[in-house]
# Entry
Amino acid sequence: MHVKTELKGILSAILTPFNQDGSAIDEAAYVRLIKTQIDAGIHGIVASGSTGEHPALTVAERKRVFEIAHETASGKTDVIAHVGSNNVRDALELAKHASSVGVDQMLVVTPYFDRLKFPEVQTFLDKIVKIAGGPIIYYDTPGITGLDITEEQMVTLKKDGLVSHIKDSPASFTRTMRMLSNPDAPTVLAGSDPALLAVLAHGAPGSIIGASTFVPELCVELFNRISVDKDLPAALQVWDKLWPILNFMLLNGYVPLAKAGAALRGLPLGEPREPMTPSPQDLRDRFKAVLDKAGVQPF
# Structure
């Protein structure tokens, strides 16, 4: 495998559809979802990310979604496999499978129960990179990992050939700004919904977010207005539609509402797996009103 080092656009952390009782992945629905992403002009898909409920998937299921994503999307849009886990053994097994499948890049969160020291992060990433064949996307989410990696440490990870990009879901937006202006730091991909427009406007080449899994066209339009056309007023008009959707999800249950939103658009993907629970009907009704106001139509 040769990892792709030039990434841009909306890289969509897609949902994982389940059958009615949640016991298995609905593979046909996964293919349909990926096709709606491609049709909307999404620049890449992330399989088995946080919005894809990776902690609730078995290793075998995660391997299977890598396969389906590659089979369905390869040559049409970038395919990124999230191989991070709460333990090193599974992460390495997932990385080997992703490499054998031939995905374009890997996204990696560090084992997230034990708060690693920086040398342990380096050792872990070195093992992943040896499998991937090149630097990977580091999934920086301090709220999950307990690691608040500094700008200087990020520069070190890039210099050592371990990290090319960072999915930036930071504890500090100040560090985001510093990394965006530091040519020695890994390339920032917006990973925090509230910061999406700001990070793109400041020159980030793209983003990894979950909401694009069911409102891909709004996210692609935002990217085109701000990053391609450099038209901030037009981008703000799109943001005025997109932000209420993102905010409602952040306040009321991100993944359950993403699944509810997909179903409201005519793309049923089942409900989340435990410990998450489905959005109650009153919340779905309120969410539908938010989507209607933004002009979101069925697929």
